[in-house]
TrEMBL record, chain A:
Residues passing through the membrane, by range: 15-36, 48-68, 74-96, 117-141
Official protein name in the record: Uncharacterized protein
Transmembrane as UniProt keyword: yes
Keywords associated with the record: Membrane, Transmembrane, Transmembrane helix
Protein's organism: Mucilaginibacter aquatilis
Biological classification of the source: Bacteria, Pseudomonadati, Bacteroidota, Sphingobacteriia, Sphingobacteriales
TrEMBL record, chain B:
One Pfam family cited in the UniProt record for this chain: ABC_tran
Keywords, sorted A to Z: ATP-binding, Nucleotide-binding, Transport
UniProt protein name: ATP-binding cassette domain-containing protein
Keyword ATP-binding belongs to the record: yes
Residue stretches making up the ABC transporter domain: 277-410
TrEMBL record, chain C:
Species for this entry: Mucilaginibacter aquatilis
Domain of life where this protein originates: Bacteria
A GO cellular-component term linked to this record: membrane
Alphabetical UniProt keywords: Membrane, Transmembrane, Transmembrane helix
Protein name: ECF transporter S component
Length: 245, 472, 179
């Protein structure tokens, strides 16, 4: 992308101004304004077109800030969620409507509603991802100044909480690697040849689901908790050091 | 010689075979003028951790102790934890697993906070300077900690330890050579010098054999009787075509650059003899390479494949830090859970495990050094040692009949004689069922009487290109 | 910072918050009718309440699932924050007393589960449609969708109760850390 047109909202300082800019850009999904001013109850397609225009604006805004590759990754996530939600949602609603003997007009309204939800999701999800990416936990940590004794206990608690929170993410993502390695068939952990041959396979599968959920929740807890004594004792020593100095 | 070296304890712990002359070897010889350094050698990881707990008064729960014990011990630690200690506990450890030391989003944050805590006027500048001392460049400090290799994390732990120097009187460094490539040992010397110059004490806790790698005099190496069983070779071949892996740039929580690894030559089709070593510097991409072999990572473009007799599919890997993948109270419990829906394979894994233990018992009988060691030779299946856990996890993988078994740093948490024993028993068991073995290691000499071929990975002029070399 | 709130508690609360957020984010089973989803994040909220008490339960419930909702499902942030926060707090409040048995803790967790089901029904059937008449952002559910989602929320509550108690037992044993 031509750098001449690049925007740097993520670098706007002070932070509150960046927050304000992002809130203003996100006003339509948050409040509906100003799109509600042009909405009309009679013509749902008109409303759809307005949301579509807003979606295009958001995509362009993200493109100018992050580049094409990042926009694509946001969109792939948004489309995945929106497609699952809306296609299956439309299917079930139509099925319920069919059972209840709903009119053709009602069915059309369901489809339009799902379509508008789809467009709303593919606009709002990239926006929320971009919003989160505009604020750095890392720079927040680096701004924590521990060099003064004043309020250092609160800062140490805060630093520890952020540190552990980060650690949870690392642990869980590496567990996903383990999961992948241990599931060559990508179906169930870890070996399942007999499972699919059994006549009671649905029950066995449920049993496996329960066992594996508890096992992997425990694994997440154990991996996460393993580092806590090390991290906490380190912080405790820091408090002792500073208070005894 | 070091002033506070307790030879009696060393001899008691390590048995008579450990020669005091080990301390004269290259890497630690450079430190011999520093009286603040104490080094101790242990035959087993459990002995090392026990000693560390005794010295520091800090006994954290460890996953390898088993689920029940771990959770109970954690709750006990939590219940008794107080922010202010009655006695002035003053310690700083670089533990066997450096990942436990570094957990901020980016390494630079961890070092910055360490410097800030020590009341540094410009913590950020100081952190950058320290990173520079450890040859950790700016791009590395902007990568997420979870993307870093074990060696890189250990170097970051060194940098952090330097940043926190004012907070402690004693630094404990545990099993550093198991993470570091020999060319990086001098950075540990830098850290030790830094502490010693400030009048602090440094304690090196090592597993037997950790120092042998850079010994200039190989006579000692020849004298070393590495416990191992004779192994036969097994042919296998590796095929690589235009292999490329790209790790996308990250923007959350902060921008970090894209990482590209291109393996050259683009067209690689060679035959190897198992057991095969994979060697290379820290951060060269050894782990990424084996993760692609075992389908944990998919290549961005190109292809990597293994050709071997009979077995198909992807390689299975025992990662260096996978010891905590053992679920259940006992080994049997673990096999029951894992093979819940494939009892035939479960039976096979149990049989393999029993056979390996039999070989282990036999080796212990014939090796005077190992007789006093607790090597998980009991039949009860209770989880007692790292070695036992490693055997169990290897058996689980072998039971799935992969085309290749990969051992990522099998020497981790094991001393040299125990590593020799472990790998030779595993290689023999794998070869019997026609599974070749690939061993990733920094400590090539530890396997000198075991390996049959070597794959070396190295970065030349272009930092994005990893060269694959075959050394036979 | 209160004196009896130790660094250890901060660390464990942060860990459970993170686990709750990831448990909500990673395992998402979409419920198409209401555009929502169910997850296992509640397991850790119940665990926090049972193990650590009402305030940590409140924090874990308030922050963890809300962080997860911020990515992809921002419409549900308000409902999630209130319902899950309340769930953690109430579970901690009922299950906090010294020496109480597993049965009482199961009841505490079940009350938490009931809060999930009733809370989401109230929000989706009445509060969101009401708010939606003023702010389109909240116009995502109606009473029909709320009824359809009840069974899924019951399933989520059962998973939360069973998982929370199952994890609490080996972790805390017979005593809570501050007892």
């Amino acid at each position: 992308m031509n750098k001449k047109y690049q925007l740097h909202v993520a670098k706007v300082k002070p932070v509150w101004l960046r927050f304000l800019i992002l809130v203003i850009i996100g006003l339509p999904p948050i409040t509906g304004w100003p799109l509600t001013l042009f909405a009309t109850a009679k013509d749902p397609l008109h409303n759809l077109f307005m949301w579509l225009s807003y979606g295009c604006f958001i995509w362009l805004f993200i493109l100018l800030n992050t580049g094409f590759k990042k926009l694509l990754s946001y969109l792939s996530f948004a489309f995945l969620l929106a497609l699952i939600t809306c296609l299956v949602g439309a299917g079930i609603r139509n099925l319920i409507g069919f059972i209840q003997g709903a009119s053709r007009q009602d069915m059309t309204l369901v489809s339009i509603r799902m379509l508008s939800l789809f467009i709303c999701m593919v606009s709002v999800i990239p926006y929320s991802l971009f919003f989160i990416n505009c604020f750095s936990v890392s720079s927040f940590i680096s701004r924590l100044d521990f060099s003064t004794v004043k309020n250092h206990r609160t800062k140490i608690h805060l630093a520890l909480a952020l540190r552990v929170f980060q650690h949870v993410g690392d642990v869980t993502i590496s567990l996903l690697d383990v999961w992948r390695e241990e599931n060559p068939k990508m179906i169930s952990p870890r070996f399942s040849d007999e499972l699919w041959e059994s006549r009671l396979s649905p029950l066995a599968w449920l049993n496996w689901m329960r066992n594996s959920a508890v096992t992997w929740c425990l694994a997440m807890i154990m991996h996460t908790f393993e580092a806590i004594p090390y991290l906490t004792e380190e912080m405790k020593n820091i408090i002792n050091f500073r208070e005894n100095r | 010689m070091r002033g506070n070296l307790d030879y009696a304890i060393i001899q008691k712990k390590v048995t008579r075979v450990i020669r005091l002359s080990f301390n004269e070897l290259y890497i630690w010889k450079n430190l011999s003028h520093i009286h603040m350094v104490e080094s101790r050698y242990f035959v087993t990881y459990e002995d090392l951790v026990g000693y560390l707990e005794l010295k520091t008064g800090f006994a954290p729960p460890q996953i390898i102790e088993g689920k029940g014990l771990f959770l109970g011990k954690f709750n006990k630690w939590f219940t008794n934890f107080e922010d202010v200690s009655s006695e002035n506990v003053n310690w700083r450890c670089i533990f066997p697993d450096p990942k436990l030391n570094i957990s901020y989003p980016y390494p630079i944050d961890e070092i910055t906070v360490a410097c800030s805590l020590c009341s540094s006027p410009s913590a950020y500048d100081q952190a950058n300077r320290i990173l520079n001392d450890y040859h950790l460049d700016a791009s590395l400090s902007k990568r997420q900690t979870m993307t870093l290799s074990g060696g890189e994390l250990l170097l970051l732990s060194f940098a952090k330890a330097q940043g926190l120097k004012d907070l402690t009187e004693t630094l404990y460094v545990c099993t550093p050579t198991q993470w570091l490539h020999p060319t990086k040992y001098f950075l540990l010397e830098n850290l030790i010098k830094e502490y010693s110059d400030s009048g602090k004490t440094v304690s090196l806790l090592l597993l037997e054999g950790e120092q042998i790698e850079t010994a200039p005099d190989n006579d000692l190496q020849e004298q070393e009787q590495v416990s191992s069983v004779q192994v036969e070779s097994l042919p296998w071949s590796l095929y690589i075509k235009n292999l490329l892996k790209i790790f996308d740039a990250q923007t959350f929580p902060k921008n970090s650059p894209e990482k590209i690894i291109r393996y050259v030559p683009a067209d690689f089709d060679r035959e190897f003899e198992s057991p095969t070593l994979v060697t290379g510097d820290n951060g060269v991409g050894k782990s990424v390479f084996v993760k692609m072999l075992s389908n944990i990572y998919q290549p961005t473009t190109g292809r990597i494949a293994i050709r071997c007799l009979g077995n198909e599919g992807y390689a299975r890997v025992l990662m260096q830090d996978s010891l905590d993948q053992l679920f259940g109270e006992t080994i049997n419990d673990h096999f029951t859970r894992v093979f819940k829906f494939d009892k035939a394979k479960g039976k096979q894994a149990r049989e393999l495990y029993e056979k390996m233990l039999d070989e282990l018992r036999l080796a212990i009988k014939t090796d005077v050094r190992l007789r006093k060691m607790k090597l998980a030779a009991s039949n009860s299946g209770t989880i007692e040692t790292v070695l036992q856990v490693k055997f169990a996890l290897v058996c689980e993988r072998l039971a799935s009949k992969p085309p290749l078994l990969i051992l990522d740093e099998p020497d981790w948490c094991l001393s040299r004689p125990v590593t020799g024993l472990f790998t030779s028993i595993v290689v023999n068991a794998a070869h019997k069922i026609h599974i070749p073995v690939l061993i990733i290691t920094h400590l090539r000499n530890w396997y000198s009487n075991l390996y049959k071929s070597v794959i070396n990975l190295k970065i030349m002029e272009n930092p994005q290109e990893v060269h694959i070399e075959q050394i036979n | 910072m209160s004196n009896n709130w130790t660094l250890g508690k901060t660390a464990v609360v942060a860990a459970l918050t993170g686990l709750s957020a990831l448990g909500t984010m990673i395992i998402r089973v979409p419920i198409p009718v209401t555009n929502g989803y169910f997850n296992i994040g509640d397991v850790f909220v119940v665990l926090a309440g049972l193990w650590l008490g009402p305030v940590p339960g409140l924090i874990v419930g308030l922050v963890g699932p809300t962080v997860a909702d911020a990515v992809g499902f921002p419409q549900f942030i308000l409902a999630t924050a209130i319902i899950k926060g309340l769930e953690g707090f109430v579970v901690g409040l009922i299950g906090r007393h010294r020496g109480i048995g597993v049965g009482r803790r199961v009841i505490a967790a079940s009350v938490g589960g009931f809060i999930i089901v009733a809370g989401y029904f109230l929000f989706e059937a009445y509060i969101y449609p009401y708010l939606g008449s003023y702010v389109p952002f909240f116009k995502v559910t109606d009473i029909g969708g709320a009824i359809v989602e009840v069974p899924a929320n019951i399933a989520q509550a059962v998973i939360a109760v069973a998982g929370g108690v199952a994890l609490w037992r080996p972790l805390a044993g017979s005593a809570r850390p501050d007892e």
